């Protein structure tokens, strides 16, 4: 029996089917996910990522990431230490941060697998075009919560599910490495479960702020 990758509910129903895969929606948290039998192997997934040509010197890529980075930067000072979680083969947000005197670590499962970084805590974490690739959604968010200091910000960039009708024609699902699709309702559920404050920043950017202690 399939369980929701985020809340582990059994209440899944068919949301969409195309020539490649089925997509199930959770009745509890509204996450849309791809069943395990349709997911790529780790080897095939990495081979796909190896073809990405993201470059920190590419002005267009910087503008794209700027939709997350610039609103976040307004909240930061050089005293803040951050992590780019899932930075890919060409880390760029950490380069942009360094240019304004802010230090960031880079972590990526395939390209910067520095596991010790996952035991640290940070003032802010960026996760741009990453969350939709991770099968263990519950484990990922629990890990991120543990790495966030009280009052810290988690900046997430991912395109959001708008409706079942829109999903049917959505280019985002054509990427076979995309296996979990979040809507605003899903992010609201996450915020409630983890006691985070949710802010919708842009059409594909949300910020979560961890509650202060006391």
TrEMBL record:
<keyword id="KW-0489">Methyltransferase</keyword>
<dbReference type="Pfam" id="PF13489">
    <property type="entry name" value="Methyltransf_23"/>
</dbReference>
<dbReference type="InterPro" id="IPR029063">
    <property type="entry name" value="SAM-dependent_MTases_sf"/>
</dbReference>
<keyword id="KW-0808">Transferase</keyword>
<protein>
    <submittedName>
        <fullName>Class I SAM-dependent methyltransferase</fullName>
    </submittedName>
</protein>
<dbReference type="GO" id="GO:0032259">
    <property type="term" value="P:methylation"/>
</dbReference>
<dbReference type="GO" id="GO:0008168">
    <property type="term" value="F:methyltransferase activity"/>
</dbReference>
């Amino acid at each position: 029996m399939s369980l929701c990758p985020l809340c582990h509910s059994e209440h899944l129903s068919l949301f969409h089917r195309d020539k490649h895969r089925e997509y199930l929606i959770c009745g509890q948290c509204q996450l849309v996910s791809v069943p395990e039998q349709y997911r790529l192997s780790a080897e095939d997934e990495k081979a796909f990522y190896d073809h990405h040509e993201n470059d920190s010197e590419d002005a267009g890529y910087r503008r794209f990431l700027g939709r997350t980075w610039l609103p976040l930067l307004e909240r930061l000072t050089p005293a803040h230490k951050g992590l780019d979680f899932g930075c890919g083969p060409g880390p760029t947000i950490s380069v942009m941060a360094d240019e304004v005197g802010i230090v960031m670590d880079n972590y990526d499962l395939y390209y910067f697998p520095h596991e010790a970084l996952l035991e640290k805590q940070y003032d802010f974490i960026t996760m741009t075009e990453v969350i939709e690739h991770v099968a263990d959604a519950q484990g990922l968010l629990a890990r991120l919560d543990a790495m966030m200091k009280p009052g810290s910000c988690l900046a997430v960039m991912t395109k959001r599910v708008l409706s079942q009708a829109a999903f049917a024609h959505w280019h985002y699902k054509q990427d076979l490495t995309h296996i979990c699709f979040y809507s605003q309702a899903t992010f609201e559920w996450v915020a409630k479960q983890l006691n985070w404050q949710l802010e919708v920043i842009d059409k594909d950017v949300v910020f979560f702020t961890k509650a202060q202690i006391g």
